[in-house]
Structures are given as C-alpha cells and as structure tokens.
Predict the structure.
Amino acid sequence: MGKVADKILEEANQEKKRMIQAAKKKAAEIIHKASLEAKKIKENGGEEAERVKKREMERYLSKVRLSLKALRLKAKNEVIDELKEQVKMKMKELNWSSEYKPFIESQILCASNTNDEEIIPGSLFKEEFGALVKSLNEKKKCNFTISEEKGDFELGIILKKDKKRMNLSFPVLLEEAMYDLEERVVKLLFGSE
C-alpha cells in the first residue's frame, strides 16, 4: 500500500499546488480588478469633485456679476438724477427774452391744435406770459388766453381746451427727453455693455 498511498499523496500534493496556484491567480485577478475599480472610483470622485467645485465657482461668479450690475445700475441712476438736477438748475437760469420765450413760443405753436387753448403757465415766468400771449395772438392770428388756474410747476406750460390737456410742463418734458436720451447718455458715460 505504500506505493498507492504515495501516489495518492503525490496526486493530492499536485492537486493542492494547482489549487493554490489557481487561488493565487484568482486572488491576483480579484485584486487587479478591485484596483482598477478603486482607481475608476477615485477618478470619478475627482471628476465629480471638480464638477462641484466648478459649479460653486460659477454660482459665486454669477452672484458677483449680479451684484456688480446692481452697483452699475445704481451709479447710472445717480448720474442720470444728477444730470436732471443740473438741467433743472440751468433752465431756471434761462434769460426770458433770448432763451425761454422762443422755446415756450415754439412749444405752444407746435402743440396747439386749434390756436385758442387756455395756457396754464409755470410759476417762474408767469408775469411775462401776458405779453407773450398777446404777441402770439396778434402775429399768428391766434386766440390763446391765460388760464386763471395755477400750475404746480415752475417752468413750462399746460395747454387746456375743454377737457383736454397737453402737459408741456418742464418736469414732463424733461422726463420725456431723458427717456429718449438715457440710453445714449449711459453709453456715453459708461460705455457699451
């Protein structure tokens, strides 16, 4: 029995060696596969971390841009408001005969539909309007009258006929002019965006 036992023992040892080699090979494959998966997870995790970092940076930059736009808008509005105030002050300094009267006369004639409206003058040059209306009526064959109604503005006029009113007061004219000019003024002062 010695030979048979030796042969069985030898075959068992060889089988053991094959099993150990197969196990080592399988273990190496598992370790290699796990290593590849770990590397992939690490890369994906790095990519995900990079995406999150980029997203946060974009959100922060967006917030900063929005804040800058708000500051620019505030600065633009302050400049426009200051410009309006300067224009108002300059208008109050106009000379009646050479600057204000020709302007108001052209406003009246351009805005009038019937040349017989009541004129509500602003408070600043109210006394001078009598002579202006008389002159227009004589030269242009008009029938304008000065209203007893008092305007709540300093410069400009309101033309009134029945229930219709044409507001040519300076605050209204300034707002209309600034609305038309605001884009150009902003581009001039702040450049194009």
